[in-house]
Amino acid sequence: MKYIILVPDGMADYPVKELGDRTPLEVSHKDNMDYLVKNGQTGFVNTIPQGVTPGSDVANLSILGYDPLQHYTGRGPLEAANLGIKLEDDDIAFRCNLITAEGDKLLDYSAGHITSKEAAVLIKFLDHELGSDGIKFYPGVSYRHIMMIKDDPEEDLIGIKCQPPHDIMGWSIQKNLPNGKGAEKIIALMQKSLEILPQHEINQVRIDLKENPANMIWLWGQGKKPTLPKFTEKFKVTGSVISAVDLIKGLGKTIGLDVIDVPGATGYYDTNYVGKAEAAIKSLRNKDFVFVHVEATDEAGHNGDLRMKIACIERFDKEVVGTILKHLENKKDFRIMVLPDHATPVSLRTHVSDPVPFAIFGSGITVSGATSFTDRKEKDAELSFKNGSELLEYFMRH
What we know:
This protein is α/β, with parallel strands linked by helices. Helix content is 33%, strand content 20%. It has 14 helices and 13 strands. Helix 5 (75-82) packs across helix 10 (246-254), helix 11 (273-283) packs parallel to helix 13 (306-328) and helix 12 runs antiparallel to helix 13 (306-328).
């Protein structure tokens, strides 16, 4: 049996007035996802445990069958794993965003979706200026990077409360700085970055081009090295993961899945949708399981871009789901599941903890009678999972 999971990050949404109180998913042309529903099963799943901050780290752990309440140690170490950063027991990995600050306002969580090439130069510069024996900066993709810092027994860097920057766009920086025992050290690094980054030539050029400068770092998502059981041991299948972002690839590496890099996979609107689907098909020649993640829908939600979110949903449906379904024509012994990891409503521009829809189609899956893939939850959904980590077991074993 072959198992395929397709995750359009943040695709689920809320009804939008301009769409006649329908959601972006409901108005999108999505013949392939609707096909899965019409010929398979659909339901809703809570990928975010109650009381846990909604994020792609926690949600994708759940989708992959790992209970975040047992296994989650922070976002930073998962991203660090993909960058090849070896964490010691006393190392703490922080996610390090390059952001745009304007006065006391956090204007842009992504510094205008700065290119990886520009960002790498700035992170190297920061490491030279702010790094030390106990502090190290590592470049990642676009605005997403890692800062590693040695733990101090007299501080509680793990316990510091840090706000995700995409949750506070347009808000006061001073009122949302990290807080807790040891926060002064983290705040000092962030404030120092605001002193030195604006003068860098890359930012001067970005300003000349009317682009948002990467004039500050934002540190959050800290954690220590996780210990997770390997996916192959847990589910008795071999597998791979396909994504453009370090978080998902790092999670895959941590649980022992092969990570497949796809040319043109950017983590943004212009990502290589077809390339990801074709890489998944190729992977299934010698693997039992493949997990395909697409970030574009989430970025559209964070940007509050309704038109682009619909466009990304339609591209995902046609170029990812459609490409894979075409390959599976006349084939047996496979199952495919599509679901967003969480909702990122364009009206809120941030993640929420609402249940998300899923669709399952393939060998041994009964037809439920539903006709459309929707994120409008009904009280009496055919299938409902309160513990998101139980869904994968159902998908593979039911």
